[in-house]
Amino acid sequence: MASGKNIVSSILEQNGFACIDADKAAHLALENSKEKILSQFSPLAKEKGVSLLNTDGSLNRRSLASIVFSSKELLSLHESIVYPETERIINSFIEENSKNQMPLIVINAAVLYKTPSLMQKAEHILYVDAPLPLRFIRAKKRDSLSTKMIFERFASQAGLFAKYKKSNADILRVWNIGSKKRLKKKIEAFLVRQGIKKWNKKEHYGF
Fold it and tell me: Are 64 and 146 in contact (CB under 8 A)?
């Protein structure tokens, strides 16, 4: 969370990749699974005095997050409802964009390891990271969440790198602690090493 995954995704798009944002896919999956979500979490929402629906009838994701991120059990229940539909949406995107001879596809996701079938398709993992204080500042500016909610989400993603290292995919940890230009050079250096992008002497790739 707040490490810079979206910036990396946009850099990859500029280099010819088709990118899907797992968060956006999950938002669509939420709406598709709205009745199941309401059935499971409405009683808790009533206890907390929050509404799970916006005035237009769509799910209030912030109210839902205040519930599901409050315990591991509730988060697991939520994931069991939403992840299968999210996975279906992402697989449809992959299938549609695999019609090219050499498809370049990116899944922009924080917890891809929780969907093993998608993980098995990954040849490479770019693990975008940044120090926790910096991620906290970014999250605070971007999402306007309470400190408690930010750290609940951070806690739910603890130990992610170790989980990804267990996969068979080639993994590179990319630290996003400088400028966007510096981050772009790191990503493009990786693409050059993989033979996806040609070396350009005018560009000073490297770490």
Answer: no
